[in-house]
Design goal:
Largest sheet: 7 strands, mixed
Strand content: 5-15%
Oligomer: single chain
Order of helices and strands: HHHEHHEEEEHEE
Length: 203
């Protein structure tokens, strides 16, 4: 996988690249574009290509796509249940969740984690079984252009689905939301962790 965000020196370009990476990774056979200024669009499109390349290189047991270029929702849920989950690329998530500042607190708020509960991000090499008793999953979209009247949208333009007890339900929320940049976060209060996860065996 691409090891770092090439636009780390610019918050706007880094965020656009990271969003593009998520879109390309989630839907590698789809063309993605956004109504950005030319320099921001260039960063986004580079991210799309990097994410697309990384997804195409994944073996099936890590959520790779099949020969037809597709991986169905049911395939991802089945993979999660059979092989578990692993943390998504931290070099992407940092530029969206930490730099943006609002998404981590949004997830914590929707999940209902008390504000005095210490929460840390998942380790880069984290992997574990899906749908454990203390797990909470939530679909979140890092795009900040959601209309205010959309259910789940925040005043900052982000979006979050409902808190779910299974990865599959949150993944279905992500699919229904319709933005390729959306992800699924896993939070577990007893272990004090929250982070974006992907179906499949870790590295």
């Amino acid at each position: 996988m691409a090891g770092k965000n090439p636009f780390a020196g610019s918050e706007a370009l880094a965020k656009a690249w990271a969003e593009g990476y998520l879109a390309g990774f989630a839907e590698p056979e789809t063309d993605h574009t956004r109504p950005f200024a030319p320099d921001v669009l260039e960063a986004y499109e580079q991210g799309v290509q990097n994410g697309r390349d990384d997804r195409r290189q994944l073996p099936p047991e890590r959520g790779g796509i099949d020969a037809s270029g597709e991986s169905s929702l049911s395939d991802l849920i089945e993979t999660a249940l059979e092989l578990g989950l692993h943390a998504f690329a931290e070099f992407v998530i940092h530029d969206l969740f930490d730099a943006a500042g609002g998404l981590v607190s949004l997830v914590v708020q929707v999940v209902g984690i008390p504000t005095d509960t210490p929460i840390r991000p998942l380790e880069d090499d984290w992997e574990g079984a899906a749908d454990q008793p203390e797990d909470t999953y939530i679909a979140v979209c890092p795009r900040d252009d959601h209309p205010p009247m959309l259910e789940g949208a925040t005043s900052d333009g982000y979006w979050a689905g409902a808190a779910r007890s299974t990865f599959g339900d949150a993944l279905s929320d992500r699919e229904a939301h319709g933005h390729a940049e959306a992800v699924v976060a896993r939070c577990q209060v007893p272990e004090g962790t929250c982070g974006v996860v992907w179906a499949g065996k870790g590295t």
